[in-house]
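Continued from yesterday's entry.
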Amino acid sequence: MPTPPRSLTGLRSLGATGCSVSALGLGLAALGRPGYLNLGHGDDLDGARDVAALEALAHEVLDAAWRAGVRYFDVARSYGRAEAFLAHWLEARGIAPDDATVGSKWGYTYTAGWRVDAETHEVKEHALPVLRRQWRETRTYLGDHLDLYQVHSATLESGVLDDRRLLAEMSELKREGVRFGFSTSGPDQATVVRRALDVTIDGVRLFDAVQATWNLLEPSADAALAEAHGAGLGVIVKEAVANGRLTDRHDDAVSADRRRLLANEAARLDTTIDALALRATLARPWADVVLSGAATPAQLRSNVAALEVAWDDQAAEALAAVAEEAEPYWRRRSDQPWT
């Protein structure tokens, strides 16, 4: 007998972590630094690129998210000042640690120096000294609000899943009460997820959650994420609107047929393309929380409308045709400019 769909309102469990999350979360990748690779990001900021203006915008979006019932918030050490912006907002609004669930990530260092035209925006290094340094930094900002600490973009190439000293350090922190997860990127996401499920220290699985990309264009990790969910890991989905490619602003002639299909289904269900894309992701039975990457209150409200979309089998069947092969999808993503 099929499992009935979960309600999209209220709170649900993040796997077996003991954390409660809303179906829709908010990621601050586009709000913690002046440059990001989402389509039209520079236009979204509308000149709000200095620290104070960007923090004010971040707080506006966080306020809109809170009013909409969002209770999961995602940041990272490499998201510029996202941890600080979130921490200041939590304190200013008097939000207690038990009232929201917060995840952050380690493994990338922000190097852009608050410049949009920087040659390198972040540097990846999954090494023990980086974990120790960034763990102290994250705890300084988020303190008791931190619920989940994730390896940022774990890959087979980085060696993070085979570094026994590094894994032992995380295991020691886990014994002290830290929940560990990992995020993935790239065409080998499914392989990484399955490899991470096998990482144990003294017979105990190290990772409590996984954050991965799944969207209508890039669904290749579907089966692996279902396996992770079945094993008790919390599953967080990022890039559900494909960094802007699954929104009304994407009009690339190369993707005209896909866009037409998306627009037709959005019109049939009386919604927008971004809300349709998010609703498709929310419909995955293994998805505990799906992140909005909204950079403005208006985008946040449009994303939240996904919770009301009357998703059906017709939409699922029609939109299966927009999927791309994983390799070209990720090549295209890597070519998107930071603005």
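--- second protein ---
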Amino acid sequence: MTTVGTGSVLVLSATRRLTAAGVPDAARDARKLFSHATGTASSRLTITLPEPVCEKVAARYETLIQRRLAREPVSHLIGSRAFYGRDFEVTPDVLDPRPDTETLVEVALRSNFKRVVDLGTGSGCILVTLMAEVPEATGIGIDLSEAALAVAQRNAQVHNVARRVEFRVTDWLEGIDGPFDLIVSNPPYIALDEMAGLSPEVVLWEPEMALTDGADGLTHYRRIIAQALPLLLPSGRLIFEIGPTQGAAVAQLMRDAGLRHVTIIPDLDGRDRVVSAQMVGFTPQTRV
């Protein structure tokens, strides 16, 4: 078996090339991709990096590095992304699950719910997580993309909640029958004039229809609020993920629609990330 040097040498070289190309967190990505190329658990890399690497594995690693240099997201290269303690399949047909979205899940889990609808479900990371955390709940995942729903379905199966969820292709809540205890959504909220400022990993590799409304970033909040009100139980909640500058605007849209207990919740970095509201006359019940 012909070798081409140690793993340490390959990872160091890859880190330098990624850094020179402006790739953020280059060292982390180089190690993660080496772990994937070799089939080695990340926890064992310190032990295995000094060992020689065969030509076949080195070539596989080089292919991954070349794709990362083209700014393809690591999640696409390895096929998954961790979210709320679980690994979710990721493809170019869905948004890459982000730690910021875990804030929405945390807010949703603070109260009781039995029937949930997730609008723009994508990979299904929100809905599948809620189902896994609340075994008595059932849910519906909505998306306009059949390809995205296929990914969500596979994630539901992997995490053993497929029997309690269904996925439908529709435009938000059109044709959906309530009532629901909880409606959640991470809709396309990036304004058209903000798209140019996004990273290449987002602009080049993630589905545009899941990123922007092509307008001011608030279009889908307006539509969802109008459609959601007739489908929420008197004790129901509507929870959105938002962009960090949209808290006040989305909160006002909810108040104008007659929703109460409107709250803006920050993410771990202190940026506005979630807006939560409840139907009129609801006394909050906190999950113990």
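DSSP finds eleven helices and eleven strands in the chain. The chain has two domains: 3-70, 92-278. Will compare against the first tomorrow.
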